[in-house]
Every structure is written in structure tokens, then in C-alpha cells.
Design goal:
The chain has a four-stranded mixed beta sheet. It is an alpha+beta fold. The relative contact order is 0.14. The protein is 48% helix and 8% strand.
Length: 262
């Protein structure tokens, strides 16, 4: 009997909408407390400064009302699970756009972004299609991608500034789950069980399918370590040596499958 087709994961839209705003609030609180010398300091994102990163974070939220204001596409082109694999192609364009953002008044930028997001979403339907450059997406799906952008770059901001910036639970959960599902889509199968408590468990990699008892191949890690691995911000061997990842079984080596998002 062929394995049952996996159902696409669903997300609670009301919680995702609130999570985007909550995580953006955490970022704003951190950014607006930074002195100029820190804002002009480096990040792990190439030549981006902290100020560049702060402006990029605002854009990742501000693009929602901007896209809602644009004409609606005729049909959806990019499913949610396709988004993590499509982002690498846009890296150069995103870098260029970020460098062109006006980041002189971050307080004003963050306040305008917060207000525009709330106003635009007040009457927007989840099914509304957005003309995303990577392919038309539904508003509901696109908002899940905003949790990934915000959580991943919150970690970048923390690494650059030394701040312990909070993570909204729903935003962290959605980010973890989407990147875990992307791994399962990249390497379909049931030979390896990847556990990222408390948010996600997925099976992946071709091979003997586990049905009951303790799986023979198990990978387990925490959400932030997983997110760093999935986005290329951490090295599999380093995290394994530091015991931030546990991997048991002859098929439990994911190094060749990482990162899942460019």
C-alpha cells in the first residue's frame, strides 16, 4: 500500500496576523533603544549594518500594506511551501532594495509601518491574492512568510547587538514549522524523524518507513538552532559537536540537505 499523502499544514490566520505585529513590536522596542554607534555597526549579513537590518525588518512588514494596495493578481502562483525555495533567486534584488531604504528616522519608519499594517489588514480577506515578486500568494500564506522573516532577522539583530530580544511564541512556532515542512518537501520520505520541540515533528529522507516504537533515525534540536541550520546561519557539524543537535541512526545526517532556505 502506498504511503498516505501528507496534508498541507494549516495556520490560524488570526494568530498569525497578531504574531507578525507582536514580533515587529519586539524588534521595534530593541531597535529604537540602540545608540547611533551600534546602529552603524556590522552584522553577520555581509556588509549590512544594524541600521540596514533594522530598515529591512520594517520593509518586511510594510510590504504587506503595499501589496494589498496593488491590483489583485488573477490566480495564485506560489504556494506557501514553495516560498522558502524561491527566496534565493531574489537575494540580489532584496539587497539592493534594502540599501535604498530611508533609514534616517527609524522611529518614524517603525511607527508608520505599524499603523499601515493594522489599517490594511482590518478589512483584508485571507484569500486576497498579493502580487508578490516571487509569484502571487494569498494574504494568509504571505503572512506566514512574514513570521519567518521577522524571527530569522530578530536572531540576526540579537547576534549583532548582543540584545536578548523576545520571540513571540506564535511567530517562532510558525517559522519553525514552515522550515521543517520545507525540509520534508526537499527530502520526502519516512526514514528520519526530525523533532523540534515544542513546535514541530516531521519525517523525511527516503528509506524504510517507521511505523511504531522508537524510530531508528532521529534528529532533535531546539527551534532557534533549527532555524539557523535551515537558513544557513549555523553549521551542522558545529552544532552536532556542541550538542545543540542530537542525531541517532545511520540515516540521521542532514548536512547534505541544509540549508533549506537560501
Amino acid at each position: 500500500m502506498p504511503p498516505a499523502k501528507k496534508r498541507t499544514r494549516s495556520y490560524d490566520s488570526a494568530k498569525i496576523r497578531a504574531a507578525v505585529l507582536a514580533q515587529f513590536g519586539h524588534v521595534g522596542d530593541a531597535v529604537l533603544a540602540l545608540p547611533a554607534e551600534v546602529l552603524d555597526g556590522p552584522t553577520r549579513l555581509g556588509t549590512w549594518t544594524v541600521r540596514d537590518l533594522a530598515a529591512h525588518l520594517a520593509w518586511m512588514v510594510d510590504c504587506v500594506p503595499q501589496l494589498l494596495a496593488a491590483p489583485e493578481p488573477a490566480k495564485q502562483e506560489l504556494p506557501l511551501l514553495g516560498w522558502p525555495f524561491a527566496t534565493a533567486a531574489a537575494a540580489e534584488r532584496i539587497d539592493e532594495h534594502t540599501r535604498g531604504l530611508d533609514s534616517a528616522d527609524l522611529a518614524g519608519l517603525y511607527e508608520r509601518t505599524r499603523e499601515a499594517y493594522g489599517t490594511a489588514l482590518a478589512t483584508a480577506a485571507d484569500t486576497r491574492l498579493l502580487p508578490v515578486s516571487l509569484g502571487a500568494m494569498s494574504l494568509a500564506d504571505f503572512l506566514v512568510t512574514r513570521t519567518v522573516e521577522l524571527v530569522v532577522h530578530t536572531d540576526d539583530l540579537s547576534a549583532a547587538t548582543g540584545l536578548d530580544i523576545p520571540y513571540d511564541r506564535q511567530a517562532l512556532a510558525a517559522c519553525t514549522r514552515l522550515l521543517a515542512d520545507a525540509l520534508a518537501a526537499k527530502a520526502p520520505g519516512g526514514a528520519v524523524e526530525v523533532r523540534i520541540p515544542p513546535y514541530a515533528v516531521v519525517q523525511c529522507v527516503e528509506g524504510p518507513r517507521h511505523t511504531r516504537g522508537t524510530p531508528p533515525n532521529v534528529v532533535e534540536t531546539d527551534p532557534l538552532t533549527w532555524i539557523r541550520l535551515a537558513t544557513g546561519r549555523a553549521d551542522w557539524a558545529v552544532e552536532l559537536d556542541a550538542a545543540r543537535v542530537s542525531a541517532s541512526g545511520e540515516r540521521a545526517d542532514l548536512e547534505g540537505l541544509l540549508p533549506v532556505m537560501g
